[in-house]
Write a structure and sequence with these properties.
alpha/beta; Rossmann fold; ProC C-terminal domain-like fold; 2 domains; two-stranded antiparallel sheet; disordered N terminus; binds NADPH dihydro-nicotinamide-adenine-dinucleotide phosphate; binds (2S)-3,4-dihydro-2H-pyrrole-2-carboxylic acid; NADP; EC 1.5.1.2; cytoplasm; proline biosynthesis; P5CR-like_CS
Amino acid sequence: MAAIMDESETWNRWHGTLQPTISITLHEAETDNSEQEAAAAQSLQDNSTLDLIIKTDPETPLEMDSNLRIGFIGAGNMAYGIAKGLLQSGDVPPTSVKVSAPSARNFVRFQELGVAVTHSNEEVIHSCNLVFVAVKPHLVAAVLGVITKYVTQKHIIVSVAAGVTLVTLEGLLPTGSVVLRLMPNLPCLVQQGALLFSRGTHAQPEDGALLRSLLQPCGLVEEGPEAWIDIHTGLSGSGVAFVYLFAEALAEGAVKMGMPSALAHSIAAQTVLGAGQLLRDSGKHPAQLRSEVCTPGGTTIFGLHAMEQGGVRAATMTAVEIATERARDLGRKPSHIATDNRK
Ligand SMILES: NC(=O)C1=CN([C@@H]2O[C@H](COP(=O)(O)OP(=O)(O)OC[C@H]3O[C@@H](n4cnc5c(N)ncnc54)[C@H](OP(=O)(O)O)[C@@H]3O)[C@@H](O)[C@H]2O)C=CC1
Ligand SMILES: O=C(O)[C@@H]1CCC=N1
């Protein structure tokens, strides 16, 4: 049974200066993460579970609080993708953003955005109220271990680390910390990301709405049960790389047939882009679009037959499955994450 909640109330967390005009569709199952996960696990093949996705009207973005300071711990590819995306809206000035990393090797591109940089994670947590933790999963425990004494209930901590669960994150932070888990993907860089997040025990719907509103310029942003975050990691976080592999193979097929490599790669990229945009914007099932390309006895059905013989469909499904399992595995081994010495 769904209930619609119209919020025009003042937001306590931001000292009354955020005045959201949002419409959040809440379902009973969404009020408790464990219920969400149970529902997701029991009916993964049931379309009705899509009702678990929390909708915020994208036409009514939040008015950003001028006190909002956004931090990134970690200055790598994903931090840059999110920072670039969220600055795009113009609602967040670059002077409200600060990034930390041990070395300066990734700082230049942030400085080009007008963002402040520091080698001190403590400085980020001191000066920012919404902080993205964007280090590799095996570093999360060490990083949170150092900053935890500075984290207050006024902070919102958003982890993008693959596999690191809300329970693990909450266990590494002071009791009552507001934590969200976000899985973005690299096309945030060009405002075409696909992002899914889940709220931790103490994160309120308005915290989720704030995150969604901030990230809206990065692409498609959805909230769902935590059980879906690892699946989204396989489907989309890693899925981007699967698409690149496919694009590369597409181009190499053309090179094999005699087309110059640069032209083949350029056409492959445009083909992936156009196919994706049509798929998204038409709302049609991919099988329907595929059949619209096939002339009986024509070129496409011959090519598709070769792809089926090569097992591309099974290989792709297995890639999503195994990447999901890997994310789950990372989540089940927090001690391994903490002690792993990979960069
Ligand atoms: N790349 C992707 O497509 C996606 C990545 N993710 C997640 O995002 C997270 C970051 O990945 P990604 O951006 O690719 O990784 P990168 O290797 O590009 O960046 C990692 C960053 O962490 C910094 N760092 C290392 N140690 C510390 C420390 N102790 N304190 C602060 N910063 C530190 C590094 O510093 P330095 O600059 O000095 O090297 C670097 O800036 C991962 O957890 C990953 O699971 C999620 C979805 C997609
Ligand atoms: O490969 C990884 O672990 C990260 C998470 C999703 C994309 N990159």
